[in-house]
């Protein structure tokens, strides 16, 4: 009888091991399929959405999201959802900016797995209408050793919590996602550079054809407006009559009419840094640095890229590309182009 019992135990153990092996094999196949899926396209927005979708499928999560860090690395510039409808998204209001558990992963980008996120000290609760969420798995996504953003997964189906295997699988997916994101960014850069070269050739042709300075600068503003998906673009150059100020020489975009001749002090934060260093700067809200009495368009009040205009290796002005408050921030890739 003891021998029969021992044989039964061995058979159960073998069966359990076979089940684990089959589960591991299925998980690896699913992971490989997911890696192939996220690498099938070169559009960055579509790639981010695919990453979130396959992540939820891999670990059987009801909800998923990918938060993209802003240029300063202290908050989020984009939040891609999976598991809720467009109507539900709109009812929730503004997407997370980087507080609570979201902010904790931004400050300390390491994998985090929780049975009940509502009991974590960093939890700040949910806005009205937000679906209930308890089990949580968060993993950073790195692109060339730089944190690009974080994957957030919640509500493992069946009411259970995420496992060690789930965490390992999502970490592996995050590594592949970093490669896919980098490829999509490189493709976007190459596309934008080609568009810039083509447009620059048209501007050069205008100059050779006898176009005025204002016409040429306005053409450049329109070009940047299109390439950077900006709301408003302005070129400011040194004012011969006031060495402490820059003057708007050309502008294009939202409410741009009538701002030519507007003066901006050189000491304005961000602008002063660009003039001193010659290096471009990004800000999530240009308006907070501008003088209260300065009448610039709303399209320059929000996220902005400030780029030096170099004449004889000296920064003699700046190009401002802006968006309205609350809009998505510019990327460093866009600034490089």
UniProtKB/TrEMBL annotation:
Superkingdom of origin organism: Bacteria
BP-aspect Gene Ontology terms: detection of hypoxia
GAF domain residues: 43-191
Metal-binding listed as a keyword: yes
Leader sequence segment: none
Record has Membrane as a keyword: no
InterPro entries: GAF (IPR003018), GAF-like_dom_sf (IPR029016)
Record-level Gene Ontology MF annotations: ATP binding; carbon monoxide binding; heme binding; magnesium ion binding; nitric oxide binding; oxygen binding; oxygen sensor activity; phosphorelay sensor kinase activity
Cofactor: heme; Mg(2+)
Keywords: Cytoplasm, Iron, Kinase, Magnesium, Metal-binding, Phosphoprotein, Transferase
Protein name according to UniProt: Histidine kinase
């Amino acid at each position: 009888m003891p021998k029969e019992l021992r044989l039964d135990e061995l058979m159960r153990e073998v069966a359990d091991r076979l089940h684990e092996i089959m589960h591991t094999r299925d998980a690896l196949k699913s992971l490989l399929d997911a890696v192939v899926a996220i690498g099938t396209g070169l559009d960055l927005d579509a790639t981010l959405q695919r990453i979130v979708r396959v992540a939820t499928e891999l670990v059987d999560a009801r909800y998923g999201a990918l938060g993209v860090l802003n240029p300063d690395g202290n908050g989020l510039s984009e939040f891609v959802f999976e598991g809720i409808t467009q109507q539900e998204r709109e009812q929730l209001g503004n997407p997370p900016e980087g507080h609570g558990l979201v902010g904790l992963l931004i400050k300390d980008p390491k994998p985090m797995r929780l049975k009940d996120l509502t009991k974590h000290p960093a939890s700040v609760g949910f806005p009205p209408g937000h679906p209930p969420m308890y089990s949580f798995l968060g993993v950073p996504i790195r692109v060339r050793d730089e944190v690009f953003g974080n994957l957030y997964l919640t509500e493992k189906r069946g009411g259970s919590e995420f496992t060690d295997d789930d965490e390992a699988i999502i970490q592996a997916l995050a590594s592949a996602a970093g490669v896919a994101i980098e490829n999509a960014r490189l493709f976007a850069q190459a596309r934008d550079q080609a568009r810039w070269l083509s447009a620059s050739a048209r501007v050069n042709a205008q100059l050779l054809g006898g176009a005025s300075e204002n016409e040429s600068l306005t053409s450049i503003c329109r070009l940047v407006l299109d390439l950077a998906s900006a709301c408003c673009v302005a070129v400011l150059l040194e004012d011969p009559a006031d060495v402490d100020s820059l003057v708007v020489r050309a502008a294009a975009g939202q409410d741009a009419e009538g701002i030519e001749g507007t003066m901006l002090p050189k000491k304005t934060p961000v602008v002063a840094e660009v003039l001193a260093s010659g290096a471009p700067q990004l800000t999530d809200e240009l308006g907070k640095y501008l003088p209260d009495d300065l009448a610039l368009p709303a399209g320059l009040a929000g996220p902005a890229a400030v780029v030096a205009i170099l004449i004889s290796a000296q920064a003699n002005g700046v190009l401002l590309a802006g968006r309205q408050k609350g809009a998505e921030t510019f990327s460093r890739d866009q600034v490089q182009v």
